[in-house]
């Protein structure tokens, strides 16, 4: 059946967990494009052959051969064949578009949650996708900066208003010494700290810290 | 067919579902591709075969196809649903039960094979299952139990189930410590918080951490 490679390609991305991506499948992508070329070639040749046959019939019957596109003159069975090719081409187009868009949406989401590309994702991107991330990063940073043309706010920070400016966190993995506005803290696995909530947010997103229940 | 869900992965996957159809005029050339059981490239008028849902609307609209209801919407299924809609396993029959139903009905209306009772059947099925789904979701204790329930739900119902369970969990969190929106990296249905009261000295914190870790 047509479109099999395309749907497998899409499923490859769809089944991957939301914050990572499989490697860009160059080969499958090109196979789908080749299938489209084949379908298009078959479609045009069936169409042209049936027009030729019709012209022949007209010449043999002594009529003037029709010029220009003047509606379908082939058999209904051939028309059905053309529709199969036509809908298959559109289906493949849709599958490829959805594949690329799904990947780009995730890349964009990573800029908002993690602020950078994790290494295991970076390794799986095509060069164009890396370029997309860099330009999107530049765009967003420019929008968020203070000064000319920017809003002066970090929009990727925690959007929920805090009940308490400080929060208790437990360290999930060793991270070294970090300077917070409350002082310098050495982040070692298993220790708990009392830290400013908004500064802690990116570390929680990266899995370095874990929030413990806020105080009553 | 212009639709807002062009890029929607669920919609695309739903259209992979195969449905029974008859070729009104037959077709040349692609016989072996669309009908794996055929020996020849040409198919005779009236050939019955299973086609993927994405191929159906363009051809049905031009009266090249007549499409029928697949077995999972048929009479046997309707009787089963009447007996008890909530217990049926929809995922094994057709994971995108409702999306396929709406698209199929539109295509059948185009080629004049529509069953007038079909929309009512689908609506009643959904009504019956939705109520059960909503009552079960907040009571789920573990993710094992949740996945057991979700294995019988269609994709659309599964999304509603997850939303209901997350809403219930958020409510519980709000009730117990006044913070319904946790700042944590991964979403899970239930999250047991280690409830250390208040701030304290560094020693107090380390003791609390040691207690929680043991």
Automatic annotation (TrEMBL), chain A:
**Where is it chiefly localized?**
nucleus
Record's Gene Ontology CC terms? GINS complex
Q: Where in the cell is it found?
A: Nucleus
The segment annotated Disordered runs over 49-72
Q: Tell me a GO biological process for this protein.
A: DNA strand elongation involved in mitotic DNA replication
Gene3D superfamilies, per this entry? Answer: 1.20.58.1030
Q: Does the keyword Nucleus apply?
A: yes
- The DNA replication complex GINS protein PSF1 C-terminal domain sits at 164-211
| Residues in GINS subunit domain copies | 81-146
Give residue spans, biased composition: Basic and acidic residues. 49-60
Q: Which UniProt keywords apply?
A: DNA replication, Nucleus
The family database entries (PANTHER family) matched by this protein are listed as: DNA REPLICATION COMPLEX GINS PROTEIN PSF1, PARTNER OF SLD5
Family assignment from sequence similarity: Belongs to the GINS1/PSF1 family.
In Swiss-Prot or TrEMBL terms, this protein is called DNA replication complex GINS protein PSF1
TrEMBL record, chain B:
Compositionally biased intervals (Low complexity): 202-214
- Extent of Basic residues compositional bias: 183-192
Q: What is this protein called?
A: GINS subunit domain-containing protein
Q: Where in the cell is it found?
A: Nucleus
Q: Does the keyword Nucleus apply?
A: yes
Q: Which organism is it from?
A: Chlorella ohadii
GO terms in the biological process aspect are: mitotic DNA replication initiation
Top-rank taxon, per record:
Eukaryota
Per UniProt, which keywords does this protein have?
A: DNA replication, Nucleus
Show where the GINS subunit domain sits: 75-174
The Gene Ontology CC terms held by the record are: GINS complex
Query: Which residues are in the DNA replication complex GINS protein PSF3 N-terminal domain?
Result: 7-55
* InterPro entries tied to this protein: GINS_A, GINS_bundle-like_dom_sf, GINS_Psf3, GINS_Psf3_sf, PSF3_N
What family does the entry list?
A: Belongs to the GINS3/PSF3 family.
Q: Does the keyword Nucleus apply?
A: yes
**One Pfam match:** PSF3_N
* Residue segments, region Disordered: 175-214
